[in-house]
Design brief:
By secondary structure, the protein is α+β, with helices and mostly antiparallel strands. Helix content is 17%, strand content 29%.
């Protein structure tokens, strides 16, 4: 796959900075910087469409990358799980986290092996997390996580009891040092390859949500609520 060479025919446009998450030294996209975005709207749209994040952190000099679901409220993400989770313990103890959320939008088939690529929208977010101890905020964070899976789901299920609540560690992750990167469009081939016989173009890729399958132990007569029955992923009509 092409290592994202900068192409003369691609416009230099840089990232928007107003009202965004201004690039820091480490969030500044170096390769193909015209694909970088630093505006909050783009970053939040990619996060909201994501189902889970890959969360990177280092413990005892070793890197780990662990997938985790999340929820967003305003300019923070919430992670939750067992207090025994290495990732959550590390985050609670101040170890810096690096979260990535990626949407694969297409396989980009160029006329050369070198320029074969992918279309995508991705976010990289660096943060130190803060444990959420305030009971009201913790409950709201858990609601954010559940409603991120399917909007409105929280109000249709039993909330956490005291033991479940106590046994759940919630981390708050500020969305303040982040970058987005977006590639769209056809392959970017070398001029000298344009007479090639190789087919070139894009195979679109989508995450597909199917019809809800009832739990085999579901009591008879219970139908999914419309927000579940019609759910086909973030942004889809319910
Ligand atoms: C699904 C997918 C597949 C990819 N495959 C390849 C591949 O095979 N080869 C390749 O060279 N590149 C690939 N990329 C692009 C890759 O993610 C990097 O953008 C690229 O390696 C350039 O990194 P860099 O050295 O410029 O930046 P780095 O020095 O690695 O990063 C600097 C900063 O830029 C930001 N940044 C870098 N990449 C991204 C990103 N994708 N999204 C948001 N912020 C980012 C981060 O804040 C990072 O800290 C792929 C991207 C995606 C989403």
């Amino acid at each position: 796959m092409a290592a994202e060479p900068e192409r003369a025919r691609e416009a230099e446009c840089g990232g928007e900075r107003d009202g965004g998450v201004a690039p820091s030294e480490r969030t500044r996209v170096r390769r193909a910087p015209q694909r970088a975005r630093y505006d909050r709207e783009t970053v939040e749209a990619i996060l909201d469409e994501g189902v889970f994040a890959h969360v990177g952190f280092a413990v005892e000099g070793r890197p780990f990358v662990i997938p985790m679901v999340y929820g967003r409220r305003g300019d923070v993400l919430y992670l939750h799980g067992s207090p025994a989770s290495r990732l959550l313990r590390a985050g609670r103890d101040g170890v810096e986290l690096c979260l990535t959320v990626t949407h694969l939008d297409g396989i980009v088939l160029a006329r050369s092996a070198f320029h074969t690529s992918v279309n995508y929208r991705s976010v990289v977010l660096f943060a130190r997390a803060v444990p959420v101890d305030d009971a009201a905020e913790k409950l709201e964070a858990l609601r954010a996580v559940v409603d991120h899976a399917v909007p409105g789901r929280w109000s249709g299920v039993r909330g956490p009891d005291e033991t479940e609540f106590r046994r759940t560690l919630v981390l708050k992750v500020p969305i303040s040092e982040a970058s987005a990167k977006v590639r769209t469009g056809p392959p970017v081939d070398d001029e000298s390859d344009m007479t090639s016989d190789a087919w070139a173009g894009v195979i679109p890729v989508q995450l597909a949500y199917g019809e809800p399958l009832p739990d085999p132990q579901l009591r008879a007569g219970i139908e999914p609520t419309p927000d579940v029955a019609g759910y086909r992923g973030p942004g889809s009509p319910a």
